[in-house]
């Protein structure tokens, strides 16, 4: 029921990979390979987003994708 967009911001390295829109809310997601962690610049950008009142979700496994969907109220009923 929501939308997930690839987020590209020319001239702004380190921004999250995806913007997820669901139920009137906006979520920022950083996708990593299994076990991957954000780079130092990404951590700085994530902290800037947090200061603006947005959380950045870092997802590196299918289980974390499922947890994210449950957390934001998605899935079959959301």
Describe the structure concisely.
The protein has 78 residues and is of the alpha+beta class. The protein is built from two helices and four strands.
Give your account of this protein's structure:
The chain is α+β, with helices and mostly antiparallel strands. The protein is 29% helix and 26% strand. It has helices at residues 40-51, 62-72; strands spanning 3-6, 18-22, 25-31, 56-59. A four-stranded mixed β-sheet has the order 1-2-3-4. The longest helix has 12 residues, at 40-51. The N and C termini lie close together (7 Å). 10% of the residues are buried.
Mean pLDDT: 92
**Order of strands across the main sheet:** 1-2-3-4
Summing up helix and strand content along with how strands pair, one would put the structural category as alpha+beta
The gross shape turns out to be globular
Q: Give the tally of β-strands.
A: 4
Tally of alpha and pi helices: 2
Radius of gyration: 13 Å
Point out poorly predicted stretches: none
List keywords for this structure.
single chain, 78 residues, alpha+beta, four-stranded mixed sheet, 2 helices, 4 strands, globular
In terms of topology, how is this protein built?
Layout: E1 3-6, E2 18-22, E3 25-31, H1 40-51, E4 56-59, H2 62-72
Parallel strand pairs: 3-4
Antiparallel strand pairs: 1-2, 2-3
């Amino acid at each position: 029921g929501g939308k997930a967009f690839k987020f590209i911001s020319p001239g702004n390295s380190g921004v999250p990979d995806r913007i997820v829109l669901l139920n009137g809310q906006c979520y920022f997601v950083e996708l990593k390979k299994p076990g991957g962690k954000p780079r130092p610049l990404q951590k700085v950008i994530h902290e800037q987003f947090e200061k603006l009142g947005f959380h950045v979700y870092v997802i590196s496994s299918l289980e974390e994708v499922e947890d994210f969907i449950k957390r934001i109220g998605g899935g079959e009923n959301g």
